[in-house]
Structure formats: structure tokens, C-alpha cells
Specification:
This protein is an all-alpha fold. It has one domain (6-88): 434 Repressor (Amino-terminal Domain). The chain contains 4 helices and no strands. The longest helix has 13 residues, at 6-18.
Length: 89
């Protein structure tokens, strides 16, 4: 049985969101962090904890707990303000 932790689900969702931006720098600017820190989150070197997840969601205009949705397990995709269409996730 393959169980995704909250941090893994958040990382996968953040990677999907990142793919909708032209550069990682652009996403880092929007969420108010450095590219280095963003790379650590995207690569799994740093865990996306509760506080960081909520800050990222707020910065992107997402509903609270949007990063926690396991898109592969259910049909409700994350929608990022005007950056990504549901069918892209």
C-alpha cells in the first residue's frame, strides 16, 4: 500500500503549480521566498509544513488546505488564481 503523507502531497501539488509559472523565480516572488528555498521544497529536501502550506495557499489565492488535496486520489483539482486551468493539473 502506497501512502502519501501530507508533505508529499503538498510537494507534488506545489510542483504542479510551479509548472504553470514561466520561472521558479516568478513563483518564489509570488509566495515571498527565495528560489533556493523553493527548490528545497520542490525537491523534497525541506518538508512543506502546515504553516508554510497555508502561507503558500494565501499567496497564490488558493482556498485553505488546497495543497493538501491528493489530486490523484480524487477529482477535485487545485485551481491557482489565473495561472492554471483545472484540466492542467
Amino acid at each position: 500500500m502506497n501512502v502519501n503523507t501530507d508533505a508529499e502531497i503538498r510537494r507534488k501539488n506545489l510542483n504542479k503549480i510551479c509548472a504553470t509559472f514561466e520561472t521558479q523565480q516568478e513563483l518564489a516572488n509570488v509566495i515571498g521566498t527565495t528560489v533556493g528555498y523553493l527548490n528545497h521544497l520542490l525537491g523534497g529536501y525541506r518538508s512543506i509544513g502546515e504553516k508554510a502550506a497555508r502561507k503558500i495557499e494565501t499567496s497564490l489565492g488558493l482556498d485553505k488546505y488546497s495543497l493538501d488535496i491528493n489530486v490523484g486520489a480524487i477529482e477535485s483539482p487545485i485551481i491557482v488564481a489565473s495561472n492554471v486551468a483545472p484540466e492542467e493539473l
